[in-house]
Amino acid sequence: MPQSGQHTDHRPVTWLAIDLRAGEGIPLHDHAHGQLIYSAQGIIQVEGQRNAWIVPPERAVWVPPELPHRIGNRAAAQLRTLYVSADSARRLPNDCQVLWVTPFLRELILSLVSRAPIYEPGSATDRLAQVALDEVAIAGAVPYRLPLPDDPRLRSLVDALLENPGDARSVVHWARACGMSVRTLARVFKQEMGMGFAAWRQQARLMTAIAQLSEGARVTDVALDLGYENPSAFIAMFKRTLGETPGRFVKKPRG
After folding, report:
1. First to last CA, the chain
2. 168 and 127 part of one domain
């Protein structure tokens, strides 16, 4: 991935704009600085600290300095990234978090990435960068995450379902694909992920659904994409899990 350059002694924040083609992604890497990963358009998937997050444009992922992470995208995405110096990152979380992006923070990010990332202390750009840091520091965290396994057999299963959350093949199929019995798969999955296979798959579908709905996708289209036979079954799962229908969830104010 192109880097933002070395942080000088007076730049708390630098930035980078990069457009990703569908499926292009960015492989595992890390930085000496922290990174706020924001997609102005398109859903991205960020992995780090044995967790994955499926992130629509109303959210961003904070990655602390020197923490390995990767970025995936099924469809085209417009990344607008802020790089935060190690000193400035001390006021931000020390683990990966998904943060709500308010309309104000979104405009701050877009304004910064439209400027050259070289600026002087006290300049208008420096003041804007400081405000952006303040907004990131108070942004609300999103509780949804997907645990990821270390076991390479489970990793192939998880990668397949993250690539296609609507894949409805049974646990019997996946046990066979992993070279395990169903009982062994259930035991190893629980040990590695802290939840059962069915619960993990539902969580993956739920996170994908929230991301797609946040981008304006229709409930019917999301339901069919995620392998549900009809929208009613999807709505029932969504309401049972989150306590409200997809339509009401998306309309709620965030941040």
Report:
1. 29
2. no
Query: pLDDT for 200-227, tens place per residue?
Result: 999 999 999 988 998 889 999 999 999 9
pLDDT in tens, 90-134: 999 999 999 999 999 999 999 999 999 999 999 999 999 999 999
Nearest 10 degrees: Cα torsion 24, 27, 30, 35: 20
Helices marked H in 46-123 — which ranges?
A: 86-89, 103-113
Instruction: Tell me phi and psi for residue 193, to 5 degrees.
Output: -110, -15
What are the angstrom distances between the C-alpha of 45 and each of 56, 148, 193? Answer: 9, 13, 18
**123 in a domain, yes or no?**
yes
Q: Do residue 80 and residue 168 come from a single domain? A: no
What is the model's pTM?
Answer: 0.83
Query: What's the domain range around 90?
Result: 13-142
Closest among 232, 168, 237, 187 to 207, alpha carbons compared: 237
Question: Any residues with CB less than 8 A from the CB of 97 and at least 6 apart, and which?
Answer: 61, 62, 141, 142
Q: What angle do CA 72, 32, 158 make, to 5 degrees?
A: 25
